[in-house]
Amino acid sequence: MQEILKVLLTFSHFIIIINSEGILCYKCTPTREYNRAGPYPCSEFDWSERFQVECPKSTLCMKITSTKVLGQNEVTIVERDCAPQKLAAYNYNWNKKKWDSEEKIVNSAYSEGCETQKVEIPRKYCYCGLHLCNGSESDSKIFSSDIILRIAGLMLCIWQNFHV
């Protein structure tokens, strides 16, 4: 039993390490792009590999949902992507007499969860930190697997400390 726990703990640490260096997200756009190679429209979203993208400059996935009433119908527009967390900074190098660029990931740009912006067309922005977590149809389901995994990891750590 202890060997299984050690493997699970090692695996959970591996997930955390992966998340700190980039994340795998679903990417789709509200409309079809002219480039047939992608990104694909969210109206065709099917959780397949063609919608998966690596996000080396992000630690979160995002899903944006907009709803607009048009006459008798309600239209929902969805977009999935990597959360934009890259910050390009430029510093002047006095020794080289030129500007050097540096890219950073701003981890504090967003927090996990959903937030609705009240504008002409309200938009709901949801951010999550597990691989492919932005594929849910429902925004509330985005975070249920994330929470369950984190609670399970915490329980394993606590159990491990009491039984070693």
UniProtKB/TrEMBL annotation:
The keyword Cell inner membrane does not apply. InterPro entries: QVR-like, Sleep_regulator. Its main location: membrane. Residues 1-20 form the signal peptide. It is a lipid-anchor; GPI-anchor. Keywords: Glycoprotein, GPI-anchor, Lipoprotein, Membrane, Signal, Transmembrane, Transmembrane helix. Pfam families: QVR. It is found in: Membrane. One of its GO terms (cellular component) is side of membrane. One of its GO terms (biological process) is sleep. This is Uncharacterized protein LOC107219003. The gene is LOC107219003.
